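Why should sequence recovery work at all? Because a backbone constrains its sequence more than one might expect. Tight turns favour small or flexible residues, buried strands favour hydrophobic ones, and helices have their own preferences. The token representation captures these environments compactly. In the example below, the structure is given first.
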């Protein structure tokens, strides 16, 4: 168990673990299954994965004040090797951002959704990054269940157990 825990860092470790689990399941899908979608979701499974990976890299770039990377095209699907590289880069940068977010500083963000330029506390930008990933992973999980594929467990309890944060005290 971690002696001292930085909660925001743990949120992003959870984010990384669940992205990896989802990529593992989706990497076994057929092209037809990757093209599946249902009403009320972002789009196809493949397009949503690309969107999440790109979003992570974009949030991290905004956090660090660096140039936002060029968007990865969803059509045609770039393949899991390329997608995995983008997730790995975004996951690592967001975990790094979380470890640096405690400082009382601000970022300026310029966005296309919503359009405009704003100043906000750095940690609030990370809240959006967490929410964005969780929302779209959930949408993909819903599509998976609708096409008969078992979605991975991606909740907090799964993370707590798998990350070693749960200590069995029932025998004490």
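From this structural description, the recovered sequence reads:
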């Amino acid at each position: 168990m971690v002696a001292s825990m930085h909660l925001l860092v743990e949120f992003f470790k959870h984010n990384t673990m669940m992205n990896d689990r989802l990529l593992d399941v989706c990497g076994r899908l057929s092209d037809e299954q990757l093209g599946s979608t249902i009403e009320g979701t972002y789009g196809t499974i493949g397009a949503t994965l690309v969107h999440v990976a790109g979003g992570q890299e974009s949030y991290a770039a905004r956090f660090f004040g660096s140039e936002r990377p060029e968007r990865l095209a969803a059509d045609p699907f770039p393949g899991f090797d390329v997608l995995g590289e983008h997730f790995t880069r975004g996951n690592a940068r967001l975990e790094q951002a979380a470890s640096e977010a405690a400082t009382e500083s601000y970022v300026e963000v310029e966005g296309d959704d919503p359009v405009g330029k704003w100043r906000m506390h750095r940690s609030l930008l990370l809240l959006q990054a967490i929410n964005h990933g969780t929302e779209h992973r959930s949408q993909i999980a819903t599509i998976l269940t609708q096409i008969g594929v078992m979605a991975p467990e991606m909740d907090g309890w799964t993370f707590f157990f798998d990350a070693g944060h749960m200590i069995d005290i029932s025998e004490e």
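A few observations help interpret the result. The chain has six helices and two strands.
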